[in-house]
Amino acid sequence: MVSHSGLITVMTRAARKAAPRLRRDFGEVEQLQVSRKGPGDFVSMADKRAEQTIVEELRTARPDWGMLLEEGGEIEGNPDKPRWVVDPLDGTTNFLHGIPHFSISIAVEERKPGGGSEITQGLVYQPLTDEGFWAEKGRGAWLQDARLRVSARRDLADCVIGTGIPFIGRGSPEQWAKIYANVAPQVAGIRRFGSAALDLAWVAAGRMDGFWEDDLDLWDTAAGTLLVREAGGYVTDYRGSDQMFKRGEYVAANGDIHSRLHKLIAGAVR
């Protein structure tokens, strides 16, 4: 068994407690596709119920910590303590359509002594496959008890790159199209799976060689970014700096591929 801090145990327990209900709700979605009301309201409730379960578990373990929640917004805690960053259902549109690709993302954000903050623990959990991708700052990234490493590929032509395509009300289709036009001819394939948290976890696991997306929120990416970095990869914003959480822009890959992917993206957004 790999030893990890009690926080990873707490996060895993919270995710696993929310998972059975999410799995049941996911099974119900197919039946709701034909109803007049449609599954949208039902999925929104599934999202909220999962968040409530996770919040209760995390609160029990660390009652004085604050929280940043996708559904519930910000909950103030002791300002001297870390806070939880939670997305109870990343991949809601997939869930809504009965596509079996979504995740729970939980991270710990700690304040740094000199100002600012950093993500120190992260978990991305896939309820349908029971895969728990977790990382702790300085202690590596793991899938259950197996150590994760980013892909070792060095040639863009051999790489599969993940992305998120802008949709109604989110992102810039024009900018995305420019980036796509730069990247697509250089790579083996581009994939759009619909859960940024899992995309980043898959980069950490070497299943994809890189990833880019913008207009993402902290709860989508906090755990996944730590996973990639602890698996030996790089994550920056589109300008190549460490402002991805602030700007909501993410380029993730191993060192060689990140350098090339970043140049293609930067050339499209100048």
Largest sheet: 8 strands, mixed
What's the arrangement of strands in the largest beta sheet?
2-1-3-4-5-6-7-8
CA-to-CA gap between the ends? 48 Å
How confident overall, as mean pLDDT?
Answer: 93
Number of helices: 8
Can you give the helix content as a percent range? 25-40%
CATH topology of the largest domain: Fructose-1,6-Bisphosphatase, Chain A, domain 1
Determine and state the CATH class of the largest domain: Alpha Beta
CATH superfamily of the largest domain: Fructose-1,6-Bisphosphatase, subunit A, domain 1
- Give the overall silhouette: globular
From the helix content, strand content and strand pairing, which structural class follows? alpha+beta
How many domains? 2
Uncertain residue ranges? none
Proportion in β-strands: 15-25%
Counting DSSP E segments of at least 2 residues, the number of strands comes to 13
Order of helices and strands: HHEEEHEEEEEEHEHEHEHEH
**Rg of Cα set:** 18 Å
InterPro entries: IMPase, Inositol_monoP_metal-BS, Inositol_monophosphatase-like, Inositol_monophosphatase_CS, Inositol_monophosphatase_SuhB
Catalytic activity: a myo-inositol phosphate + H2O = myo-inositol + phosphate
Protein name: Inositol-1-monophosphatase
Family: Belongs to the inositol monophosphatase superfamily.
Can you describe this structure in just a few lines?
The protein is an alpha+beta fold and 270 residues long. Helix content is 39%, strand content 24%.
Description:
The protein has helices spanning 6-32, 40-61, 92-96, 173-183, 196-204, 218-230, 244-247, 255-269, and strands at 66-69, 73-75, 83-90, 103-111, 117-126, 131-136, 140-143, 146-147, 160-163, 189-191, 210-213, 234-236, 250-253. The protein is of the alpha+beta class. It folds into two domains: 6-147, Fructose-1,6-Bisphosphatase, Chain A, domain 1, CATH 3.30.540; 156-269, 3-Layer(aba) Sandwich (D-Maltodextrin-Binding Protein, domain 2), CATH 3.40.190. The strands form two sheets. An eight-stranded mixed sheet has the order 2-1-3-4-5-6-7-8, with helices on both faces. The chain has a five-stranded mixed sheet with strand order 10-9-11-13-12, sandwiched between helices. Strand 1 (66-69) and strand 2 (73-75) form a beta hairpin. Helix 1 (6-32) packs antiparallel against helix 2 (40-61), helix 4 crosses helix 8 and helix 5 runs parallel beside helix 6 (218-230). The model has no long low-confidence stretch (mean pLDDT 93). This is Inositol-1-monophosphatase. InterPro entries: IMPase, Inositol_monoP_metal-BS, Inositol_monophosphatase-like, Inositol_monophosphatase_CS, Inositol_monophosphatase_SuhB. Keywords: Hydrolase, Magnesium, Metal-binding. Belongs to the inositol monophosphatase superfamily.
